[in-house]
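Reopening: structure tokens for the 5-O-phosphono-beta-D-ribofuranosylamine complex, inputs below.
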Amino acid sequence: MVLLTGNKKIKTAVFISGTGSNLNNLIKFSKKKTSPISIDLIVSSNPKSEGLKFAKIFSIEKKIFNIKKNADEKRLLKTLKDKEINFICLAGFMKILSKNFIKNFKGKILNIHPSLLPKYKGLDTHKRVLENKEKFTGCTVHFVSSKLDSGKIIIQKKVMIKKDDTPKKIAKKVLVEEHKLYPKAILKIFNP
Ligand code: GRF
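Re-run output (same inputs, fresh job):
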């Protein structure tokens, strides 16, 4: 676990691949007095991520890492070390990090997943939830381990499914809860 030193906030990088609504939300949270983290770097696996706009809006440094080869991860690790990043939040990040990468940030990488893990790991969660006629779904914040969506669960929130729900409608209401849950998870691990 990362320890808080004095009054300094923990230098954090957020990794994204898409829209970045969780990124936007985490940046806003990080600016609060009560937040243990500051967001010092945005890493995107996709140069066209919509979420990259938040780098400009909030004047936060951004880096693009495609992470296709080991060498890309090595460069990313070096960048994180150079910038003294001590904590990582994955937020809609669509790449799988290697065992070696995770080892370098052991217990210091969180992810948010739009299902009640361990159910519905991976992609297309809302579609599968509907196909299985589930009565509720939700979202989970967990530590990242080398197995996809399988690290220790920190916190979860249930969301009810209605008869006329579609994957899109579910995604929308789960996202509202994700935005509340990610800051809660961060507060929970730093102020247990
Ligand atoms: C979220 O639903 C997150 O749980 C999933 O991808 C989505 C990303 O949304 N992993 P955004 O890019 O944060 O808006």
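The pocket of 5-O-phosphono-beta-D-ribofuranosylamine is lined by residues 16, 18-22, 51, 91-92, 112-114, 175, 178 (CB under 6 Å). The chain has a mean pLDDT of 94. Marking as resolved unless the reporter disagrees.
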